[in-house]
Amino acid sequence: MTVTSRATGVTVEARNIGGIERTHVEFEPGITILVGRNATNRTSFLQALMAALGSNRASLKADADEGEVSLTVGDETFTRVLRRKGSNTVTKGDPYLSDPELADLFAFLLESNEARRAVERGDDLRELIMRPVDTTAIEAQITQLEAERRTLDERLNEADSLERSIGNLEQREAELDSKIDDARERLEALEGEIEAAERSDTGDDELLDRLNDLRSTLENVRFRLETERQSLEALRDDEEDIREALDELPDESSDSPSELESKLSKRRERVRELESQMNEIQNIVRVNESMLSGGNRDVADALRGEDDGGSVTDQLLGGDQVVCWTCGSEVSSETIEATVEHLENHRASLAADRRTAREEIDDLSARLDTIEERRTRRRELSSRLEQTVAEREETLDRIEDLEARQDELREEITTVEAKAEDVDDETDELVELHSKANRAELERERLETERERVREKLDEARMKRDELAEHEARRAEIDDEIQELRGRIDRIEADAVEAFNDHMERVLDILQYENIERVWIERVRRERSGRGRTQEQSQFNLHIVRQTESGSVYEDTVDHLSESEREVIGLVFGLAGYLVHDVAEQLPFMLLDSLEAIDSERIAALVEYVHEHAKFVVVALLPEDAAALDEDHTRVTEI
Question: Which parts of the sequence are annotated with region: Disordered (predicted)?
Fold first, then answer.
């Protein structure tokens, strides 16, 4: 190994990785160039570095059952051990990243990189950009907020009737205030007349007082009885309304909440299983693609022992055979390509299953919320009904007691009146005045009692209105939260598109492709229907505008781009993801490989541009391409 470097910042030691038997490489922050021809373990070294950083894309040396790599950055060391287990490779250790998904997509830009290949194939780019975003958690939060909003809406539906009720109660309170004032005035006038009549009265005061008391008591009982009967009528109306509300509630769902919870748990577990399978398939696809794209050269070297330019290597590389990374035997590239295509199709099928499972999760969550809302409403109505029935029974008991008391008073009054048959007209007039005064007093008391009840109901209604105001405020908060959650993904999408377009424009200015006027992603919305709902979903479409020699422009497709043009666009798309998802905050490394389709000057410009955003840039280049970069950059010439 030969390294040209002025300072040491990173140390990589690898054993039995790809085509590497053992190596030790040091480089400093900045641009590190792995200089060499094909089959010189440059890709294997990048994969070893990726493994130490956290990726699962590295493969073992074909004739080894175990390999390892260590990465020292400053004072910290990160390790990864790979072991063969049947046809699979398992890893353990303490890598730089605990979750390598972002880095695999947007920092490890080798030829088999999924982002680069998606651009080359002309795929919809949205899925790649949105994959690191936990949309399942966001959607679950939205579902929970929507359920809370539905509950609040049911309560807020009472707002209009509550306002009308408050208005009626306030009007009734004012009417009662006026009637009470009139009753007081009448009572004061009657008391004056009674005082005058008593001064001139010569009758039997004791008998008259007794008769007056009985009549007053009877009048009081009558008013109380009337009030209780009115209350009874109101309670019966309330009972009828509550029973109607209960009857209008939908029947209990045949779904059992415990069964729904079990199904929901199973669907969520299914989503996790599908995502795990998709990740495993993607890792297998990446390794196979690496074999097809050039990683097989390193494995071939490993099988042969060293790169001496012998005929075995030439035959492997020159023919249409690829060294299988699982068993070391030779298979046709068409066989591996067919396998990769089959795996990619299977992964797409799993993704469709995951979308279906997520839709089922939404449906089950909504059904659970509906059942709980109905049960809560039924409990509230049943409690009100029980209380109303109890009050009605108590009112009936009081009415029965008052009716019995009324009969007793009437009999006693008849007896006293018989004794007072000889009382003169003047006494009759005084008795009538007392009777009127008693009725006026009772009327005033009845009005005041009714006003007190009206005020209690008014206070209760106003408190409920205050609660509804709080519900209204909470509902507005929920609307804002739902809008923010829904907008979060939109903002990420918009930022991704903006970042890509911005960086593409800059790189095109640097690379100066004369016949490409512009390349950009257009974010469009399309509707997706399912389970009785219609949802909008974004799609990212890649557009290319070319310019002819005459200066006219026209739109073209990715399929018509040259290999070098697609390489550049794929690399810039990966870089856009690196910036949009703030990968640099987690990983200050950017790895580049397979740039041969781009000419030397443009490679140099592109690498310098990448270095503006990544602290460590490690790039594998042919000697003639490496010559175009500044000589001050670290160069690794042997691995």
Answer: 247-266
